[in-house]
Amino acid sequence: MANRQKSGADILSIVDNGNKEGMGYIPFDDEGTKTKKTYLIKNGILSGRLHNSITAASLDEELTVMQEH
After folding, report:
1. Residue 69 has what pLDDT?
2. Which of 5, 26, 51, 57 has the fewest CB atoms within 10 Å distance of its CB?
């Protein structure tokens, strides 16, 4: 992701992690992609977005796991 901007305090980190057992555990997303840890904000810096195969391709970014409802 090219546009990394300050989004919060240095202590702020937000993670999407569906592969950790417990609430929200899913080994694979709706498209069959294996779950992994994805930082959305790391140390206050916007560092990632959640993508399915279509949005990842259209923005030329890495595919992440995204559960659709």
Report:
1. 45
2. 5
